[in-house]
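Re: export button greyed out
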Amino acid sequence: MNTIKNRVHEILDGYDTSNITIATLCSHTSLQIFHGAKKEGFRTLGIALREPPKFYDAFPLAKPDEFLCLDDYSDIKNKLDELVEKNTIIIPHGSFVEYVGPKDFKSLKIPTFGNRSVLEWESDRSMERIWLEKAGLSMPKEIKNPKDIKMPVIVKYHGAKGGRGFFIAKDYHEFERGVDRRRKYSIQEYIMGTRYYIHYFYSPIKNDGYRLSKGSLQILGVDRRDEANIDEMYKLGSQKELKSYGIYPSFVVTGNVPVVLRESLLPKAFAMGEKVVESSWGIMGGLKGSFCLETVVTDKLEFRVFEISARIVAGTNVFVNASPYADYIEDGLSMGRRIAKEIKYAAETGQLKEIIS
Ligand code: AMP
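Workaround output, generated via the alternate export path:
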């Protein structure tokens, strides 16, 4: 991994840092990333399959300046020279990592925003648990043996597949009925409460605002995911009754809605973000840029964290121009724009290697 980082930093040495192109894959948060990058004066490039997606024509302020079209996502590794020539910095998002494949993505010799070692930790649920528990966050209990299921649990498969196939079980029998043993899964205590997905940005190079031992931490927004069909199931009767018709709850993300935390929860939210960042230095050399803690707040007003995404999350799309938190930092600050600002500041102050790997 370090050899890739060294090679990437050599590439960066050859960049004209006054003429950077920001690139990402045309999906997930790409409109927001391009929109923010354009606002900060960067050239933008969209990576797409076969031909430029037509829907970009409908959104001129978020349409990239140019497209790089591939026959297959894996072809990206054959286009690196072209990207390097344009002084390109890649912004990873969930679909980018998923489509190119986490392994291939990590070995791409092209400057990439953030610490790419972090992606390995977030895409494996066991590694993620080691990290978050080491950070001192309260996670849902893990049930190792399905025969020990004595309370509602959620069975989750590994990888960021948007909750597809996840299911709730209340005993071993329900687990057996629902599980697909060909896939790697984990079983977690189902936490009752309300869900909050908190969007953080950590800068190791800015020393204003909410300071950490190095750099500073921001919260730019909070969303909640719309999930089909668990969110609407209650309209049809009890889950038990629905099972007799072959209808089971599922957790497929279909959209996002903006939310705010009650203000007294903010200190806890910052403390959690702080712990995650501080612990990341020793574990994988620092989590840099955007990340999201996926939480449930219980009726005791306690956060339980069930997942971390160590990159920009799709929930930030609900705050393109403002959020109840970003508004207290700067007008018109989206997560996409915050990333562009970080790259701009690092380029101007000769610190790109601090935030690029
Ligand atoms: P994840 O892939 O971990 O983000 O989980 C997908 C969805 O399942 C979440 O957005 C939640 O709605 C739900 N979920 C995951 N873990 C838990 C948990 N421990 N307790 C309650 N709901 C959960």
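The pocket of adenosine monophosphate is lined by residues 140, 154, 156, 163, 166, 188, 190-191, 195, 225, 227, 251, 294, 296, 306-307 (CB under 6 Å). The button fix ships in the next patch.
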